[in-house]
UniProtKB/TrEMBL annotation:
Stretches assigned to the UDP-glucose/GDP-mannose dehydrogenase C-terminal domain: 314-419
Name under which the protein is recorded: UDP-glucose 6-dehydrogenase
Binding positions (substrate): F150, L151, K152, E153, K205, F250, I251, F252, P253, G254, G258, K321
InterPro entries: 6-PGluconate_DH-like_C_sf, NAD(P)-bd_dom_sf, UDP-Glc/GDP-Man, UDP-Glc/GDP-Man_DH_C, UDP-Glc/GDP-Man_DH_C_sf, UDP-Glc/GDP-Man_DH_dimer, UDP-Glc/GDP-Man_DH_N, UDPglc_DH_bac
Amino acid sequence: MKVAVMGTGYVGLVTGACLADAGNHVICVDVDERKVQMLREGHIPIYEEGLEPIVQRNVQANRLEFTTESAEAIQNSDIIFIAVGTPSDHDGSADLKYVLQVAATIADNLNSEKIVICKSTVPVGTCDLVRETIAKRTDTPFHVISNPEFLKEGSAVQDFQSPDRVIIGSSDSNAAETVGELYKPFMRRRDRIVYMDVRSAEMTKYASNAMLATKISFMNEIANLCDRVGADVEKVRAGMSLDERIGPHFIFPGVGYGGSCFPKDVRALSRLGAENDFLTALLNSVEDVNNRQKLRLVHDLKEHLGSLKGKTIAVWGLSFKPKTDDVREAPALVGIERLVSEGATVRATDPVALENAQEELAHLGDKVSFYKDEYETIKGADALLIFTEWNQFRSPDFKKMKEIMAAPVIFDGRNLYSTAKMREYGFHYDSIGRPT
Ligand code: UGA
């Protein structure tokens, strides 16, 4: 099939590359000329495992093209994905400016009957807005389909190539079938392509992310309670996970969820409630709990040290989770802002997100310094805070750490180490929901 993908962000690029890899002809469109040139040369602007070779081999095979010319891409395609960003407005609602701009461009270049797919995460009702925007500008027939993405950063290629489900929301069964055909090569089970109406598909995306965010905030609340009553959340988690209705996934306590999806989507759903005169009490609490959890390590450290003024604090892990360079809404950045505002200086490291974090924290000037090496980072530190569970942090040389830190103090937001071992090594070691 001939496919155009509007927007070569994280979702658009993975979608375009994987569809090309399955034999489709894909043209990816972006307004950013520099990015398009980079992609044409086979270099990808994001850190995503396994993506670069797929882009390279499909560009070489002429199945994957990159362009800034949207008109030509639209005219030469049967299926057009809208995969542009939907940033949060100041009130938490998703800003649809880019989505609707693309819809207008599609309308102005609609030279035959085509299928338009909303892939970006958009509020319920957006596909209808897209349909209205296009219909106002053209008489050529078209279909608008909601096909939300369920990719995780760090395993996006794998998620695309073996999805646990594909959601297709459409009011036209033939158009829906055509989109289903695009995904069939990737499906182990055909019955995992779920067809539904457009609004339900849009809601499925938000509800899925909100449910996952709820699981995390729930476990963080349980962990905080475990701390107060002397229970061990890791044992509680293991015990809970054997109930098949609960399951073992997404119940790891930590420093709160970050990233470009959960925080934005939970807020957008609350906003949708407010716009429809409905109080999303649970979702509001999910966000509240998360905001507090992001600061938990800093609070605990302050309690331990009395004051953070003049202290040197090391931070391991800046991305919102391992295997990504994404620092959007990352708990580490929130923690570092607070450490500095409390008068501490910070030494930070991350295996891949260092540059992005440096950019985000530039306004803090020399209060934060960045290091490639994790041991260099903790030199002379009064304490170490661990925000991200990168593999290289899992079994460090504790003896060396103790020698180079000013004080052997670790606050671990990801429960990486055995509390007994840390006692043996002589660290003051605090983690989330486990007795010390
Ligand atoms: C998330 C969803 O998992 C994807 O299904 C969805 O497609 C995507 O959002 C999206 O809407 O685009 P992602 O944001 O890449 O994917 O990251 P996750 O792996 O889901 O992690 C989110 C956050 O939750 C991270 O900060 C992570 O540390 C935290 N988390 C996750 C926990 O604190 N505990 C857990 O048990 C699991």
